[in-house]
Write a structure and sequence with these properties.
Layout: H1 2-29, H2 34-39, H3 45-54, H4 61-73, H5 87-122, H6 127-141, H7 144-158, H8 181-184, H9 194-203, H10 206-212, H11 216-253, H12 256-263, H13 268-279, H14 281-297, H15 300-305, H16 311-320, H17 324-352, H18 354-357
Length: about 350
């Protein structure tokens, strides 16, 4: 088991290095001038030459990459051309919003998608199965920006002044004050330390901060603002999870040991949940892990529609402005999330499948 985990960790290192280099090189090879993207088309050649030299963009790509890797190794992601501030600060400001939204969307996807997939497999070829798969195909095909606008119109305007009204944008209602949970606990943390960084990151996710600080008014308001964007963002992974659950369950339900369990007189619920669903979890775990990574990297439209200042919006602005530091930093962070999630999925394989533990 330990050897299996170490092997997976070692295989992740070249993947991260390859992603880092590809992002760094592609950002500089795509057409466009970062100077004129930042300063405007009327910027003179002398001004652009000074801009390029000041940011080290006149050096060969491999030399720039070497300096960049050295900076990352020391925890420095550089400075943003557009915002004139360290990229690390922007990550701490924007990434918690996207992480919170992605986790909420994944929770909705699992809570809805898994039961629907199980029911569809158990009721194979029935009207329930047909309706579930029709809904799944519709969910995969539905544009997120259109669904977001429709949800905002229905729940913010059409259902205004009803118990079902929901806020169409933002993270919190006006007047809601957030206090970091570590301050509520009375902790005195030193800025720049690892503990402070982790605690500060968690405190910027309003739902977790409200739970840890026992501020349930904050929790309620934050969840209310998360419902519409989470539902809009969850439609595609929800449909994929439902279809994968159905496919995996149908394969398992046709096995001999399932027929044996039924022949022994076990109740349908026990056969489905204890014997079938338990052995259908491997492909489902993979889909769920990859879905979370996809949600982190694909929330740009949802954040734009619901006016959430997360990774998606700043990444789009950085790409249009050729702000290499932000593009590279957020791409690397999201890639790290992907690699860590894949590692967790691999470890969960060893837990769910005894054959892997015995290898």
């Amino acid at each position: 088991m330990t050897t299996y985990i170490l092997r997976r960790i070692l295989l992740s290192i070249p993947v991260l290095f390859g992603i880092l280099f590809a992002t760094f090189a592609l950002g500089r090879l795509i057409p466009g001038d970062p100077c004129r993207a930042m300063l405007g088309e009327k910027a003179t050649d002398a001004v652009c030459d000074e801009f390029i030299q000041r940011h080290g963009l006149d050096r060969p790509i491999l030399v720039q990459f070497g300096y960049y890797v050295n900076e990352i190794a020391h925890g420095d992601f550089g400075r943003s051309f557009r915002f004139s501030k360290p990229v690390g600060e922007l990550i701490m400001e924007r990434l918690p919003i996207t992480v919170e939204l992605s986790l909420a969307a994944l929770l909705v996807s699992i809570v809805v998608g898994v039961p629907l997939g199980v029911i569809s497999a158990v009721r194979h070829n029935s009207w329930v199965d047909v309706l579930t798969m029709l809904w799944a195909n519709t969910g995969v095909s539905m544009p997120v920006f259109w669904l977001g606008l429709m949800l905002a119109y229905i729940f913010a305007l059409a259902l205004k002044d009803t118990p079902f009204q929901l806020p169409p944008s933002g993270r919190l209602s006006p007047g809601i004050i957030t206090v970091p949970f570590y301050e509520v606990w009375g902790l005195e943390l030193t800025p720049g330390t690892t503990t402070f960084t982790i605690f500060d990151f968690v405190s910027r996710m309003n739902v977790f901060n409200g739970i840890l600080s026992s501020d349930f008014a904050l929790v309620k308001d934050a969840i209310t603002h998360l419902i519409l964007p989470a539902v809009a963002l969850s439609t595609i992974p929800m449909a994929i999870i439902a279809r994968m659950t159905r496919s995996s369950m149908l394969e398992v339900l046709g096995q001999d040991y399932i027929r044996t369990a039924r022949a022994k007189g076990l109740r349908q619920r026990v056969v489905v949940m204890k014997h079938a669903f338990r052995n259908a979890q491997l492909p489902l775990v993979t889909v769920i892990g990859l879905s979370l990574g996809g949600l982190l990297g694909g929330a740009v439209l949802t954040e734009t529609v619901f006016n959430l200042s997360g990774v998606g919006r700043i990444l789009y602005e950085a790409i249009t402005a050729r702000d290499y530091g932000i593009v590279q930093a957020f791409t690397v962070v999201i890639a790290i999330f992907f690699v860590v999630l894949n590692l967790i999925v691999d470890i969960s394989y060893a837990y769910l499948d005894p054959r892997i533990r015995l290898e």
